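**Reference record**
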Amino acid sequence: MDTQTLPYVLPLFVTALATMVLSVSAWRRPASGTVPFALFLAAISIWSCGYALELLSLGLTAKTWWAKFQYVGITALPVLWLIFVLQYTQRTHWLSLWNLFLLALVPGCTLILVWTNEIHGLIWETINLTPTGLLVAFAPNYGLWFWVHTAYSYLLFGLGFVFLVQFLIRSPRLYRSQVGALLIGAFLPWTGNVLYVFGLNPLPGLDLTPFGFALSGLSITWGLFRLRLLDIVPLAYDSVIESMGDGIIILDGQRRIVNINPTALELLDYKIDEVIGQSVYHVLDLSLVHIAIADDKQQTVEITRNQTMSVLDVRRSTIAHSHGVELGVVIVLRDITEQSHTEVALRQAKESAESASRAKGIFLANMSHELRTPLTAIIGYGELLSRDTHITESPIMTNDLHAIQIAGRHLLGLINNVLDLSKIEAGHVELYEELINIPALIDDVVMTVRPLIENNHSTFEIHNRDELGVIRADITKLRQILFNLLSNAAKFTEYGTVSLMIERSLGDDEEWVSFQIADTGVGIPTEQMDQLFEEFIQGDDQIAQKYGGTGLGLTISHRFCQLMGGTITSTSAEGAGSVFTVCLPAKLTNSKVEDTPPHIVTNIL
């Protein structure tokens, strides 16, 4: 071992050790591009270590062997450098398996020719030892393939430089520092190699390339640990991101803004130089900062810029390595100010409509009261006049009075329905529960609708009339429900059958009573079933003109069923009749029908 070379070899060993440590550190970083970069640093370590051992060796054979060993790193460096640059600048589509094979073809041939140089001399035609000061330098005469290898290596390094410079020009400020560190780290040893290969070295025989790596190690270390070179892969400002209507903000692991598109800059009223590389704590509103550091995936926030408030829909996504390690955060901003204003306007319109509906209900209730009083008087006077024998002797007068009474009762029924509906909508309907004798109530309702059934030449059937006994419910509302459904069935059924079936059942620990009204009448078209219980729905015009009605009976029955905790359902087929089923909580008592006081059922007549 030549101890006089220690001043030269110590920096080389330090460089070899430092670059190997940096290689391990880069390898452990969870980001794309770390593998070629880590191998690039490892190749530098091999070259530096091999050259140090070459300088320490005394004989030609030993120096030649270590010179060959260095080519393991020398041939790999240009290829690894270009692969890393392509990944770093987002040109990974060039890295197909075929292209990688072509890239490695010349270095692979070079490495084989180095270790077989004694056969052909294509790398070193002759090998000599030249004393240079304290050193005995390895001084070969280069063969043809050496220049092929050198030209190829310079080409790959040059391409990498061009790509980095292009990226430097169009990158945000934070990326420019990273790219600058890479350019310095590669330029110094490349310059030393040019001086050595072309005989321009101020220290003849001494290869300055590994010493250049010692200086570049400082630049690379600064890039890795100060600029977080491999913490997050740069995302190119491609046309898709820049033209997006949504704002895009990309943060690194330290919540610094590393990328932002023009839409986000416009929404936040910033210039790109004011935000790139800055912490979100310094430039973003507190609401956006909270999203950046929290786990919330979506929020709606309000921000104020230039005295103008904007409403933003903010979505947060994590950029993670395949192993689940977080690399950064993507924040997507969408301006929903106009949509928010529209929603506010719709909400206000809804509230106004509800207020108007309540006012309408109050108006209808008041008008119904005002109309019902004189109308009742008209009907009453008509009944009194119909009892006058002088008037009844005139057929014309009798018919006129009968028409007045029919029209008056029809109008009174309409007013009562409107009044009931307005009370329901205004929330003024109260339930009055009492004991109800079901058979008596059924007889009461059937007696009222039987004439209409018989006038249409239909028959009436009732099933299970006496099985229910006494229940507790609101008798007025139950009577009106049954009357509405039975009168509808009677009105729309001619020469057919109207039936009523009463059943009791147990469900969910509660007893229920059901009233099923079926008819064989005209039925209901399928397209009208969905709006059956809406206000003023009467089917088509021909049916409405023929059968009349207000279109409120089913609506009121439906609302009353809901108020009493029950349901009303229907099935129908046009031309085949209809079936309406009312289900109510029974609250059945143990009282016998015959023991029920008679006053609990009030006749409707």
